[in-house]
Amino acid sequence: MARSALTISAATFTATAALLLTACGGGGDDSSSEDIKGADTGAGSSSPSATASAAAGAGRPEITLPSSFRLTFENWTADDPAQQAVLNDGKEQLRAGYAAIIADNPDSEALAFYDTEAGLSQDREWIKSYTDKGLTVIGELPVFAAEATLFAKETKAQLRYCTDESEARTKNRKTGKVEANPPGTDPKVAYTVTMQKNDQGVWQAVSTESKRGGCS
Question: Any keyword Signal (predicted)?
Fold first, then answer.
């Protein structure tokens, strides 16, 4: 699956969508840190105090995941407060995506809060790759090795992290059938998320790329 672009054939996608838990990202080459593809270059900058005040009043949605699916974030911290802000909103964006799958709701308002228009279009396709087939997710998905890099006067960023799908599963809502990744599939997936800060100081996803086996 590809959260930013469906780069595999339709036949392959149909065969694997029920199994692969990849939070959908194209498997292409990594973007240069100096050229963040898909980011809007029109965003302006603001003072740290103004940004902090705007972010505090942004009205972030409450996102709840059931006990049947655990997202765990290991060492999801940064010494730089600006980088930490990217990590915080990136975490909630990912939680919102899986909450939308579990709620069978591709039009999740919480996900829309943490996505730009382009990012939301991608993520709806990712979510529908589950919901259109009557699937949800269960188990545990550790998210680790997070790193945020800021650009353009701290209005744009790249968020990189890894996931381990070893204990994550899909479950058919009607039949209850549970499936894991096919044998031999590398359970670790590396992600690069292009993010942009909006006028309220919220970091939103513009696009996501993934590479299975890309984690050391």
Answer: yes
Bridge partner residues of 135 (DSSP): 172
Amino acid occupying residue 102: I
Count how many domains the chain has.
1
Alpha-carbon distance of 183 to 202, in angstroms, equals 39
Q: Is 15 inside any structural domain?
A: no
pLDDT at 129 over 80: yes
> What percent of the chain has a predicted confidence (pLDDT) above 90?
71
Helix (H, G, I), strand (E, B) or coil at 109: helix
Domain residues for the domain of 114 are 70-216
Whole-angstrom distance, CA of residue 134 vs CA of residue 182: 19
Q: Could you tell me the two tokens for 31?
A: 């973007």
Which helix (DSSP H) or strand (DSSP E) does residue 147 occupy? Answer: strand 135-151
Residue 13 inside a domain? The answer is no
Cβ-Cβ contacts under 8 Å for 119 (sequence gap 6 or more):
204, 205, 206, 207, 208
Residue 40 domain-assigned? no
| pLDDT class of 22 with cuts at 50, 70, 90 | low
Other C-beta atoms lying within 10 Å of the C-beta of residue 97: 26
DSSP code string of 33-100: TT--TT--TT-----HHHHHHHHHTS-PPP----TTEEEEETT---SSHHHHHHHHHHHHHHHHHHHH
